[in-house]
Structure formats: structure tokens, C-alpha cells
Design goal:
heterodimer, A: 198 residues, alpha/beta, Nitrile Hydratase, Chain A, 2 domains, two-stranded parallel ribbon, two-stranded parallel sheet, B: 214 residues, alpha+beta, Cyclin A, domain 1, SH3 type barrels, five-stranded antiparallel beta sheet, globular
Chain lengths: 198, 214
């Protein structure tokens, strides 16, 4: 007796993606270099190193910090870090009593030009379902213990605002240059699930 | 649309598969087809101009629930783009099936034509207490169900306006442009004690809100 396999499960995601590409390509609807151009933006141009430069600048330049918190779009545009999924930017300021964290519970919205494309875990059903409801628990499981006297604020990216977290500058970094500070600011720090560690 | 995609607060999921700063984010694409998802989405939206990104979100929401649960992230955007291009008449189901060599399952059809925004109201101000309108929408909407009927405080009104998702997500080019508001909700007002305390801030279009008069 054979096991029946549904027709939809007989193809892989990659086969379906290539089938869509083939249908469009056979109709000459894909311009030369179109896919390659967007792929280059996604792989190389949009990168969390961009957000690290923004945060390190804000840590070392009070006027820039003020601009970033007042008009995040202008502050990121000063570096050229705006574009698709990064056209209206708001920076979220961590304080001694507030820790900010970003999610998109409905899909995966992320500030692409500043943070890079979202990682797999950020798009997972687990993160999308749980962070809004049990932020402190999720952060602890990920490896970040937030003290009880610090309020956790979860920002659900449900419209056109795209966020980045401006974390507090850690103690003991007074001697570091802006370039050295950038290394402390990882993608996870910009999303808000991690604190910068010296 | 009260679909599976509206996951905020859904219980039963295990730990997030991640430990902070443990993963390299390079290469950005882990499999050799993943770059096609957004590339072909932008082809259909930006280059061919056959749909917009709100329609893409809604097409993902329309993926049949059992299929949705088992799909990978980028796979859903391939299905959504294929669905919208088929609905626009650019390609056909038969062409997709022939290219694949088996049935290419698309998203379910639209069950709604969308709805217009509410115009002619004064804007809300920072500090205003607002309630999310207690209404049920079968089409696309960018208000997660967990704030339906709940009250919060406005922290920010955007300085730009965008087309109302419930209209533009159904290709309604007359969609009114509105600001959105960052509305802060106390977690315990959303889920009582069956949650961690704290705040959730949701970015909500003006039409989703009513002012609570003091």
C-alpha cells in the first residue's frame, strides 16, 4: 500500500521560487540585472554596521544625539541610511529605567537600511507571538536579564515607522574611539534584545 | 483579518531559536533561492507596478492556514507574489504548474474588498487617551487583535501620512492618507496577569482610534 503524498508537498520552496522566476523570465518580464541589483542591496548595502555608526555617533556627539531622538529620519539620512523600509525612522532611547525592544507581530517589518534584513529568529512565530506578551521572559531566555526596576517597552512595528534602539553607553567606555564603540553595537543591540557589552 | 498571521499574544509556542549575538548574519541568505522572494516582490510591485506592499502583506495573510503554519518565511513571499501576479493576469496558474512540474498552491482568494478610512475628524494629540475601535474587519488591517477595544496613550503623531492599509491593501487607489500614532498600552490591560508587566507600543492609523474624552 502506498502512502499518498499531496501534490503540494512534492515540491520544495526553492523549486517553487525558481518556477515563479522561470515563468516571469520566459515572458521577458525581468530586466537584465534587476534581481542582482536588489540582491546586492539586501546582502551588502543594508547592514547593522550602519546602525552601529549611528549609535556610536549619538554616544559621542550630543548635537547628533539630539537630532537622532528628535528626527530619526534626518539623522539616518545624514549617513545615507534611508531607503525601502526605512523612510520614517524613530530612535528609541534606553534609560536607566526603560529598556526598548522591537518586534513586528504581524509579519517582519524592520528598518532595513539601518539594521539590515531581519534575521530568521525575529521573523519566527515564537518571537512574534511571545515578545509583546512576555517581553521580560523572552529576553531572559535569549540571554538578557533586565532588572525588575527597569520597565520593558515593546514596540510593535505595525505601520510605516521603522525603529532602532539607542542603548545606553556602557560604563568603562570613556577611552574608546567612535570606531571602537561601533563594535559594541550588534544587530541584536539595535533590535533591543541585547545590551552592548564591553 | 483575524488570521493566523496575527500572532501577538498567541500562546503555545516554545523558546525563540536564538541566543543573543550568537549568530552570524552573513550570508544574509541561507539558501540559494531566498533572494528571489523580495526581488520578485519588488519586480511585481515597483517595476511592473501590478500591486503594492500592503497587498503583499494581505496575500501572505490569505495563505491557507495549514499551509501557512508549515511554510518558511521567504516561501510565503514567493506564494504571495505568485498569487498577486496571477490575480493581475500577468501569469497563470497553468504556467506556474507547468514550470514547477506539479501543482503550485496559491493563497486563498480575497473575501473582502476592503473599506475606506474615516475622514473629517480632528487629529489626536500627544498625551491623548484613545481607544482602539471595537470593530471586526475581514480584509487587510494593520491593528493587531490584541489591542481591539483597548485603551492607551498617544506618545507620537507621525509628521507624514500614508494610504489607509484597509483600502490600499485591496488596491483601492483612492485610499485616504492618514498619520499614524504610537499608542502605548499597559501589558496588564491587554492580558491581565497572564503576562509579564510592561508596555507595548503599537503604531496605529488614525481611523483605528477614537479619543477618550476626559
Amino acid at each position: 500500500m502506498s502512502t499518498s503524498v499531496s501534490k503540494t508537498s512534492s515540491s520544495t520552496p526553492g523549486e517553487r521560487a525558481r518556477a515563479l522566476f522561470k515563468v516571469l523570465n520566459d515572458k521577458n518580464l525581468i530586466p537584465e540585472g534587476f534581481v542582482e541589483g536588489i540582491t546586492d542591496l539586501m546582502e551588502n548595502t543594508w547592514d547593522p554596521a550602519n546602525g552601529a555608526r549611528v549609535v556610536a555617533k549619538a554616544w559621542t556627539d550630543p548635537a547628533y544625539r539630539e537630532l537622532l531622538l528628535r528626527d530619526g529620519t534626518a539623522a539616518c539620512e545624514a549617513f545615507g541610511y534611508t531607503g525601502p523600509q526605512g523612510e520614517y525612522i524613530v530612535a528609541l532611547e534606553d534609560t536607566p529605567t526603560v529598556k526598548n525592544v522591537i518586534v513586528c507581530s504581524l509579519c517582519s517589518c524592520t528598518n532595513w537600511p539601518v539594521l539590515g534584513l531581519p534575521p530568521e529568529w525575529y521573523k519566527s512565530f515564537e518571537y512574534r507571538a511571545r515578545l509583546v506578551r512576555e517581553g521580560r521572559t523572552v529576553l531572559k531566555e535569549l540571554g538578557t536579564d533586565i532588572p525588575e526596576n527597569v520597565t520593558i517597552k515593546v514596540w510593535d512595528t505595525s505601520a510605516e515607522t521603522r525603529y532602532l534602539v539607542l542603548p545606553m553607553r556602557p560604563q568603562g567606555t570613556e577611552h574608546l574611539t567612535e570606531e571602537e564603540l561601533q563594535k559594541l553595537i550588534t544587530k541584536d543591540v539595535l533590535i533591543g534584545v541585547s545590551l552592548p557589552v564591553v | 483579518m483575524d488570521g493566523f498571521h496575527d500572532l501577538g499574544g498567541f500562546q503555545g509556542f516554545g523558546p525563540v531559536d536564538h541566543k543573543i549575538n550568537s549568530k552570524s548574519y552573513k550570508p544574509v541568505f541561507k539558501e540559494d533561492w531566498e533572494h528571489l522572494a523580495y526581488s520578485l516582490m519588488f519586480l511585481g510591485a515597483g517595476h511592473l507596478n501590478k500591486f503594492n506592499i500592503d497587498q503583499v502583506r494581505h496575500a501572505v495573510e490569505r495563505i491557507d492556514v495549514r499551509q501557512h503554519v508549515g511554510t518558511k518565511y521567504y516561501e510565503r513571499y514567493i506564494i504571495a507574489t505568485a498569487t498577486l501576479l496571477t490575480e493581475a493576469g500577468v501569469i497563470t496558474q497553468q504556467e506556474l504548474d507547468e514550470a514547477l512540474g506539479s501543482h503550485f498552491k496559491l493563497a486563498n482568494p480575497n473575501h473582502s474588498n476592503g473599506r475606506p478610512a474615516i475622514g473629517n475628524r480632528p487629529p489626536f494629540e500627544v498625551g491623548d487617551k484613545v481607544t482602539v475601535r471595537d470593530e471586526y474587519v475581514s480584509g487587510h488591517i494593520r491593528a493587531p487583535a490584541y489591542v481591539r477595544g483597548k485603551s492607551g496613550v498617544i506618545l507620537h503623531r507621525t509628521t507624514e501620512k500614508w494610504p489607509f492599509p484597509d483600502a490600499i491593501g485591496h488596491a483601492d487607489q483612492t485610499a485616504l492618507h492618514q498619520p499614524t500614532y504610537h499608542v502605548e498600552f499597559r501589558v496588564k490591560d491587554l492580558w491581565g496577569d497572564a503576562a509579564d508587566d510592561g508596555y507595548v507600543i503599537v503604531d496605529l492609523f488614525e481611523s483605528y482610534l477614537d479619543k477618550v474624552e476626559a
